[in-house]
Amino acid sequence: MSSTINILRSAYEKASADRTFLAFLLKKYQEAETMSEASMTELLGCQLESYYKLGLCVAPDTASANYLVELNKICDYIGVPILPLNKIIKRAATLFKFSDDGVNSPSVLMAARDKNKEK
């Protein structure tokens, strides 16, 4: 494996711990679907180097009015198709949102539900 790939892999691994980067969402999706990196690159139709570069991009905000514009820019820059990346981002964002790591953990959602029952 080339030194470029090793450097990108190292940067990708660091970025996967930060929800700001696409690497975080790619990792969440990969774990949820129990996929290998090879399967992820096949799904996205890209080489490993492009996959790591993709992970280093800032994740677009799915709630933003500019979401599709940002997603298109990323896809054009990296050279991946928009549909599979959109699917990955939206699924991973939803998984994170409802996980214990997310802002809206199930216990918070249950507390909000219980509060409404009292009225």
Describe this structure in words.
This protein has 119 residues and is mainly alpha-helical. The chain has one domain (3-118). It is built from seven helices and no strands. The chain has helices spanning 3-15, 22-32, 37-44, 48-55, 67-78, 82-97, 106-118. Helix 1 (3-15) packs parallel to helix 4 (48-55) and helix 2 (22-32) packs across helix 6.
Question: Which helices and strands, and how do they pair?
Answer:
Layout: H1 3-15, H2 22-32, H3 37-44, H4 48-55, H5 67-78, H6 82-97, H7 106-118
Helix pairs in contact: 1-4, 2-6
Distance between the termini: 62 Å
User: Can you write the helix and strand succession as a string?
Assistant: HHHHHHH
Residue-averaged pLDDT: 86
- Secondary-structure class: mainly alpha
Quick one: overall form?
A: globular
Unreliable residue stretches: 102-109
Radius of gyration: 16 Å
Number of domains: 1
- The helix count comes to 7
Please give the share of residues in helix: 55-70%
Question: For the report, how would you describe the main beta sheet?
Answer: none
**Beta-strand share of residues:** under 5%
List how many beta strands DSSP finds: 0
